[in-house]
Amino acid sequence: MTKKIIITIISCFILSTLSVTVFAQDIKTRMKERLPIINALKSDGIIGENNKGFLEFIGGKQDRAEVVKAENTDRAAVYEAIAKQQNTTSELVGKRRALQIVSEVARPGEWVQDSGGKWIKK
C-alpha cells in the first residue's frame, strides 16, 4: 500500500470513531434533558416501561407525545448500536434493558409491563 492509501484509511477510521462518539454523546445529552419530563409522566401514570425497553402510554391520555417519541427513537438507536457491538439483535437488547429497568430503575408506583404483556404497578 502506498503511504497515501494508509493515511486515508487511518483518517477514515479516526473520523468514523469520532462521529460515533459524537453521536453517542448527542443521544446521551438529549436523553438526560428529557429525563425530568419522562419521570413526571411516569409519576402521573401516563407512561410506563414496556417489555421491549420502550416507553408506552398507559390509557388514553398522551401528554407530551413528542417527548416520548423522541426518547423511543433515541433508545432504538442505542439498542441498535449495542446490538452491532454484541452481534445480536436490537430487539434482544431492548428486552434485556426492559428487565434491567424493572429491577433497577423503575420506582414504586410506576407502570411496567411483564414479559407476557400485562401492565403492573411496581
Automatic annotation (TrEMBL):
Q: Name one Pfam family in it.
A: DUF1318
UniProt-listed InterPro entries: YdbL
Which keywords does this Swiss-Prot/TrEMBL entry list?
Answer: Signal
Q: Which residues form the signal peptide?
A: 1-24
Domain of life here? Bacteria
What is the name listed in the Swiss-Prot or TrEMBL entry for this protein? DUF1318
What organism does the record attribute this protein to? Answer: Desulfonema limicola
